[in-house]
Amino acid sequence: xxxxxxxxxxxxxxxxxxxxxxxxxxxxxxxxxxxxxxxxxxxxxxxxxxxxxxxxxxxxxxxxxxxxxxxxxxxxxxxxxxxxxxxxxxxxxxxxxxxxxxxxxxxxxxxxxxxxxxxxxxxxxxxxxxxxxxxxxxxxxxxxxxxxxxxxxxxxxxxxxxxx
Length: 164
Hints:
Elements: E1 4-6, H1 8-16, H2 21-26, E2 30-33, H3 34-42, H4 50-55, E3 59-62, H5 67-73, H6 79-90, E4 95-97, H7 101-109, E5 114-115, H8 117-126, H9 132-141, H10 148-155
Parallel strand pairs: 1-2, 1-4, 2-3, 4-5
C-alpha cells in the first residue's frame, strides 16, 4: 500500500470548500504527523477540517522519530510542515501533499514527490470529479492564495477578476 503524508493546509482548504472526501477518493491511507493533527484538530477546535480529520478512520496520526531533523527544519518552516516532510522521508512516502512554497522546495530538495491542493483538484478534474474553474474560484473565495499567472495557467483565464 502506498503511503501518502499530508500537511495541514490541504486538509483545511479542502474542508472549507466541501471537498475533503477527495483525499479518501485518491488515497486509502493518509498519514499526518502529530503536529499537523494538533494544528487542525486540537488547536483547530471548531475550525474547518477539525471534525473531518478527527472522524476520518483512514487518516493515521504518526509520531515523527527524528526530532533533530524536525527542529532543524523548524528554523525555516513551521512545525507541521517540518514534521510532514520528516515523516514523509521516514515512511518512504510515495507522495507528500503540501502547499507552502518553502516547504515544497525543501521537500523537493530532499527527493520527495509532492503535490498540493491544486494538484489534487487537477487530478479530480481530469477524472471528471469536479469543475476545476468553479472549485478553484471557491478555494480562492475562502482565502487560498494563488497568483494571477498561476490561475490563468491552470484554468486558462485571462482575467482573474471575472464576474466577482
